[in-house]
Amino acid sequence: MFNFFEKNLEKRLLCNHLLSVGLELGEMPPGLVRQLLQIVHQQVTSVSRKYRQPVHIVSESIICSAAWGIAYCLLGPSKLLDVYPEYKDRTEETEMELLLFQGGNSSENNIYQQIFRLLLDTPHCHPEVKTLCEQTRLATVKSIPGVFDNGFLSLH
After folding, report:
1. Angle (CA) 97 73 111, round 5°
2. I want to staple 73 with a disulfide (CB 3.0 to 4.6 A). Which of 111, 119, 136, 139 is the partner?
3. Tens of pLDDT along 57-82?
């Protein structure tokens, strides 16, 4: 019973955050929605247990990040910045998470990376995001040995 209320809260919060950027869960394929909600629920539960905080306390922050990661993947960064220029910092943060993920710095506990892992291989992912991922992959492959041994990506 308690799990049902937690999942309902998470779904409502995710719906509200996505609506704020013009996306609706109802417009997405049901299987994809189910997977997104599962990712959110697992992350909320994990953080809640780890820090011994009630679900309703940790939900807001995690779901806000999840919604922004979803919006970034589905709408693309240009559209987000065109429509919501006030979210430039949030968009740059999401892009940095994507670059880290593509560069091999992945973490199972990172909500952005879990969202990327799911959405990047779907036809719903925005072409601009896929292009950025490909450019990052190519930059990683083309880095100059000896010069970039400190872990930074070469953009040449």
Report:
1. 45
2. 119
3. 999 999 999 999 999 999 999 999 99
Tokens 């991922």, residue located: 133
User: Per residue in 13-24, pLDDT tens?
Assistant: 999 999 998 999
Q: List, for residues 104-127, the tens digit of each pLDDT value.
A: 777 778 999 999 999 999 999 999
DSSP letters of 25-38?
Answer: GGGS-HHHHHHHHH
- DSSP assignments along 84-102, one per residue: -GGGHHHHHHHHHHHHHHH
The tokens 């601009």 sit on which residue?
Answer: 128
- DSSP 8-state code for residue 120: T
Its pTM surpasses 0.90? no
DSSP state for residue 106 in the 8-state scheme: -
CB 111 within 8 A of CB 66: yes
| CA–CA separation, 143 and 1 (whole Å) | 53
Residue 39 near residue 114, CB atoms below 8 Å: yes
Note the pLDDT of residue 145. 53
Q: Helices 30-51 & 55-75, crossing angle to 10 degrees?
A: 140
Conformational region of residue 76, where left means phi above 0, alpha means psi within -120 to 50, and beta covers everything else: left
Confirm if 60 and 13 have CB atoms less than 8 A apart. Answer: yes
